[in-house]
Amino acid sequence: MNNRVARCSMFVTPTNPRFIDKAWTRGGDVYILDIEDSIAPAEKERCRSLIRESIPKANQGGASIYVRVNKPFVDADLPCSVWPGVDRIMLPKTESAAEMRHAHEIISRLEKERGVPAGTIELSPMIESALGAVNIHEILTATPRKIWSMGGGGGYDMAVNLGIEMFANFDQYAFPVAYVALAAMALGIEATGGVFVHNASGRVDQSEQAVKQAVALHAAGIHHAGALHPAFVQPLVSGLSPAQDEISWADGVIEEYDKLTDAGESIGMLATKVIDKYEYDMAERTLDWAAACAAKDKYKARALSRADTGIAPGPGETRP
Amino acid sequence: MPKYIRRSLFSLPIEDPRLGEKSYAAWADAIILDFVKQPGRDWQQDLKSRMPAAIHEAAKGGAEVFVRINSDASAAELESTVFCGISGVVLKGVNGPGDINNASQCLDVLEKSRGITGGSLEIDVEVNTAAGVWNSLEIARASQRFGTFTVNEHELCRNLGMFPGPVLEFEPLEYIKSQLITVATSVGGQAQGMSYPLSLTQENAGDEEFGKAVRRARDTGFKGAVCPHASWIKVCNEGFRPSSEEVSYYLKVREVFAEGLKRGMASVPIDGKMIDVPVDLRARLYLEWADRAQARDAEKAQAHEKPAA
Lengths: 320, 309
Hints:
The complex is a heterodimer. By secondary structure, chain A is α/β, with parallel strands linked by helices. Chain A has twelve helices and ten strands. Chain A has helices spanning 17-22, 44-58, 74-77, 97-113, 130-134, 136-140, 155-162, 174-186, 207-219, 233-239, 244-262, 277-309, and strands spanning 9-12, 30-34, 64-68, 88-91, 122-125, 149-150, 190-191, 226-227, 268-270, 273-275. In chain A, the strands form three sheets. In chain A, strands 5-4-3-2-1-8 form a six-stranded parallel sheet, with helices on one face. By secondary structure, chain B is of the alpha/beta class. Chain B folds into two domains: 8-240, Phosphoenolpyruvate-binding domains (TIM Barrel, Alpha-Beta Barrel); 242-309. Chain B has helices spanning 19-26, 43-58, 74-81, 97-113, 130-134, 136-141, 153-160, 174-186, 198-201, 207-220, 233-239, 244-262, 277-304; strands at residues 8-13, 30-34, 64-70, 88-92, 122-127, 146-151, 190-192, 225-227, 268-270, 273-275. Chain B has an eight-stranded parallel sheet. A two-stranded antiparallel sheet of chain B has the order 9-10. The two termini of chain B are 36 Å apart.
């Protein structure tokens, strides 16, 4: 299973049929089935019981499925969350390596019991406190589980922990977000979010804010972001994919640089720009990401088509 | 949320003949006592003879009292200045955890010999070097006594080779400030500082302009500031706490969220903003913070019922 492409991950509340039945039509790359903060305490148990049946509902558009558990109830939440079809467990408010190891052990046991290939479910810490941020490296290296992307160090919970009011017109998480992103990148994990985009209103339902966010993230080479509202899905999915002119430019750079190296040279020109190894590497990255996005989009399109026509997925079909 | 309600810290020299009067009139949450080693005299003996009275004078307005110490001479300076009545020391020029360990060991001995509750004296760190920033996590974790980081921006700029003038359109130490705030919070402490450029110019910018600077400092995560003038104190006391508008808003948040929970919803909107568990938690903590700030003001008011002299 490959969950690399997660341009937009949107939270969904399994206890609300209106949300869970409709989420897959939004076109997100990832749906996060939430047992944590969007679920009222009295609803937690019912929510746990709904996770397994929510997986095929939420992924019928080809999206990856994550489950966000509760830090204080991880022992109760994980047995209700680790099922075939789940790609990642999100561990909120992680502050130590010990918390990661504990969750890893439970997930490993459940994978074995439930016929999920060992080690394939990702375990992603959510960094939502100052302590979690400063301990990020030991948290990320605590278990052998692979994760493709992660971010953190900002958001509501971090604001509570730091005692700040969110939505100021400057980057209030300059250190924790950058520190978490750098630790992730140093370990070969792609960063999620992490670029400050002013949101004066604090609203989470305005698509123009999502467009601004996508432009800033794309410029910073970050391909992944989260959403709380469907209005964010399409702007993020399209804004974090390479545009056709970027792909054409990258193709041209590769072609031109190959000619240069064949001629024993290392620097040349394409249009009015200098082409060298740096541009070549950047072009390769663009094409690599474009190919990953195209594969994901194709998979989603086929899944949507099947969902529309009611045809069941082919046996052994794997997602890109 | 803040561990300490310490919104305004005002520095005064112990040599000031009007120390008590100024401390009383300042209404600062904390007074930091500075001293000069008088040439040609036994400075240690001189300080020892003056400190108890100076501490008493500084506390007259209900402020906590601290003494600023140089970390490179901490043993002798602590021995000369630590007496009953101080809340802790501000250690200047700290470059690594060893500086904290040394000071902490000295305080262990002094607390025992001078009738101060063991482990009660706090060590606050004034950061003024790149090494201090780089080692901030080890410094904050070096002792249970660690309380706060204070950013001394003038000296830090000098150490970093930065021009300390207000010429930039952005906050040049944004990352460093955020780092110190994050690290202090990670060990249960807090950080004090001001936003650029007033952090460097230290001007009296007028209440409205200064109020905005305090708001930005609070939004950065600072819980108070060292005030170069008495004129900063009132605005800091009002600004480094939830405003009355915020208190009203968070009361509404708690009410709306509680109603949502009764309907089985843990996520409810107010004016397009999502109100969920962490927002409700923040509302509760902000309201507690406001109550604690109010209680601190009441303590100081009580101290002011006694005459200054």
